[in-house]
Amino acid sequence: MLRNRFGKVVAGAATGAMLLAAAACGGGDTTEGAPSAAPTDAASAPAASGAKVGLAYDIGGRGDQSFNDSAAAGLDKAKAELGVEVNELEAGNGEAESAKEERLRLLASGGFNPVIAVGFAYSASVAKVAAEFPDTKFAIVDDDAAKGANISNLVFAEEQGSFLVGAAAALKSTKGDVGFVGGVEVPLIKKFQAGFEAGAKAVKPDIKIQSKYLTQPPDFSGFGDPAKGKTAAEGMFDAGADVVYQAAGGSGAGVFEAAKAAGGMAIGVDSDQAKTADPTVADVIITSMLKKVDVAVFDFIKSFTSGSVAAGPKVYDLAAGGVDYSTTGGKVDDIKTKLDEYKAKIASGEITVPKE
Amino acid sequence: MTSSFTDRLLGRVKLTGWVSLAAPLLAILFAAVVTSIVLSLTGNPVLDTFVTMVDYGSQPRSLVLILNYATTYYLSALAVALGFRMNLFNIGVDGQYRLAGLVAAAVGGAVTLPAPFHPILIILVAMLVGAAWAGIAGILKATRGVSEVISTIMLNTIATGLGAYLLAEWAVPIAGGNNIGTTPIAASGHVPGVALVPGSSLKVFGLIFLAVAVGIGFHVLLNKTRFGFDLRATGRSEQAAVASGVNVKRMVVYAMLISGGMAGLIGMPQLLGEAYSYSLNFQAGLGFTGIAIALLGRNNPVGIAFGALLWGFLDVSSNILDLHKISPEIVTIMQGVIVLSVVIAYELAHRYSVVAEQKRVSRELAGAAPTPEKEGAAA
Predict the structure, then answer these.
(1) What is the pLDDT of residue B369?
(2) Is the domain of A190 the same as that of A130?
(3) Which of residues 144 through 163 in chain B touch A, CB cutoff 8 A?
(4) Nearest C-alpha of chain A: how many angstroms from B255?
(5) What is the pLDDT of residue B323?
(6) pLDDT band at B13; cut points 50, 70, 90
(7) Of A159, A166, B68, B237, which cross-links A353 as Cys (Cβ 3.0–4.6 Å)?
(8) In angstroms, what separates the C-alpha of B96 from chain A's closest C-alpha?
(9) Does A327 lie at the interface with B, CB-CB under 8 angstroms?
(10) A21 pLDDT exceeds 50?
(11) Domain at A102, CATH number
């Protein structure tokens, strides 16, 4: 009996790890074609500015159809329009702090300048590495804590964008019951939740809002596990919700699947997910909260190539066009006037959206 | 003497001679072959990849990182190995060290003591919390017969939830950041690094010496004490241990307490040597890495040390792969194959040595000529 127990656990653990890795490899491959062609592209680009941009992704990396992909879009645009050379590195789940630091250091010491870190997890690492490489410009997305003469902080007013999709959810819901799926219960994602709830309640004060987070820190798998997202969203649709908003990175794909199966509606996040999500489920996405990481990344690279990088925080809010809602698919065209009303009120400061 | 697969798997049966060295080396070679196949299937240059990894992994800076990774892995694997030696599968090391790290960081941030006492207090708190959390599983097994595999997995999940709650209660937000963490530990609680590797400004965790001490303590406890004998005896055969007067239930609780106490140390090198605060970036999942390394090292403190260093090397050198557009997950595949093939290689080595022994004996018997006629007839 023992023989079986240990044998199975060992074999299971080992093969499981291999399968996971193989799956991750497979996922990586699809995206690897593009970057590996990068040097030739950059070389042939006429407007080559000579800048070598290094970018470090958060967990999930390029291909998460959400947060990281938004950064990737900005990078791709910079490559195409500014002719910069790029290299992208990806974070692993459950890695040591020193691995993040090392990633940035590898980029900086490899002659990449500027270096862009995507995600607040890089905060301490950016502060440390930026001090070691004073001649390299660094940017960090979603963090205002890392300070330095060569650090630009690209931060967003996620709660304002979430307010708009919260209002859209409430306007679209026929059952008066909406849901929020957060990836990991961290302060950043709580801003999405706070904005969403405020927006939904602004439309309909007695609306029922179901909220769930997929994992708790330090477990960050909630940003990259579609199965978890699907289960959570299924529960919400079963309990009577008809619109679910996800702020769960790569796990969001599961939320869309659940919406499709339940005949419900879903709201995407970060990227315009009606365009980026799997086409078989994209039709359930009525709108997406756009967090224009792509704009921020592109702006930063552009300011670098023109020699006008400003250190310190740059806030991308509704007024600055840093957050917004998407209209792809025309599913919110009927309520667009109302949403734009809210948008104007937030931008003018008439409505203050809570952050938690 | 016959031995079960489990006994051989967990290193309770010792291999001797050259096979004991050949087995792991063959396993690593085999893993390299499998990795090469995967690399070439995915269209990556095989030789270049390995050269790049070794090249980067042997730089002074990388060596420091390898030692730092290995320190953490070593402690984790030892915590797991202690249970293994007694047939206790402590899968809860992960939850034990995370909870211990959180509580210890909070206590360390809340008090200020003179230098030597501050880190000692933090380490003691971590050990106590780890032991207490593991002790729950031990007591459940001893009193109610609950399988520790089940209870420790459940306790991992509970530790995650409890940890999230406590972090939310104790954490101080970092101004402008999206991160939260416990109050940073004052300088008196830091354990300074040591410059072990020439040519790198990066320092090795001071607590590497604690890890070495724990390794020595592990060896002494298991091989030189009555307790260790009882523990190993219980692992080999519970019935025989009971018959010879070992209180198995008490042993279960003690073993879990010690395993958990060791688990509490896992987060300490990083906490006291680098992070100084339990934040959202606190590394999770080390308890599971420990299981793999314990198996790799055959639950032997020296074997585990090699396993931890190998793991550290693979993890550190994987950093460079992404820069060369090779999926770093290739290293995860390699690690998985190594564990699996080490298990298989040892099993084959055991069978080989059994057959070799039988051949040797029969040859000697045949050579010894006429006297053993009676025995020969009996056989």
Answers:
(1) 59
(2) no
(3) 149, 160-161, 163
(4) 19
(5) 85
(6) low
(7) A159
(8) 13
(9) no
(10) no
(11) 3.40.50.2300
Q: Residues 6 or more apart from B332 whose CB is under 8 A from it?
A: A17, A18, A20, A21, A24
Domain total of chain A: 2
With an 8 Å Cβ cutoff, are A90 and B328 in contact?
yes
Buried b (16+ CB within 10 A) or exposed e, B167-206: beebbeebeebbbbbbbbbeeebbbebbeebeebebbbbb
Q: Quick check: B350 contacting A, CB < 8 Å?
A: no
User: What's the complex ipTM?
Assistant: 0.80
Between vectors from CA B119 to CA B117 and to CA B120, what angle results, nearest 5°?
60
Which is nearest to B211 in space by CA: B85, B67, B98, B88?
A: B67
Please compute the mean of the pLDDT values over residues B86-99 and round it to a whole number.
Answer: 94
Do A104 and A245 have their domain in common?
no
| Shortest distance, CA A201 to any CA of chain B (angstroms) | 25
Inter-chain touch B295–A10, beta carbons under 8 Å: yes
Q: What kind of fold does domain B62-325 have according to CATH?
A: ABC transporter involved in vitamin B12 uptake, BtuC (1.10.3470)
End-to-end CA distance of chain A: 52
Which residues, numbered 100 to 129 in chain A, qualify as contacts with chain B under a Cβ-Cβ cut-off of 8 Å?
Answer: 100, 102-103, 106-107, 110, 120-121, 123-124
- What values do phi and psi take at B161, rounded to 5? -65, -45
Percent of chain A residues past pLDDT 70, beyond the cut: 86
Question: Are residues B38 and A25, on separate chains, in Cβ contact within 8 Å?
Answer: yes
Interface test with B, best of A88, A123, A144 (most B CBs within 10 A): A123
Is residue A24 assigned to a domain? no
pLDDT digits (tens, 9 = 90+) for B329-377: 888 888 999 988 888 888 888 888 888 888 888 988 887 755 544 444 4
Q: Which residue is it, tokens 């939850």? A: B95
Domain ranges of chain B: 1-44+328-364, 62-325
**Is residue A146 domain-shared with residue A167, that is, in the same domain?**
no
Query: Are the Cβ atoms of B343 and A10 closer than 8 angstroms?
Result: yes
Pairwise CB contact (< 8 Å): A145 & B176: yes
Q: Identify which of A102, A105, A141, A98 has the alpha carbon closest to the alpha carbon of residue A123.
A: A141
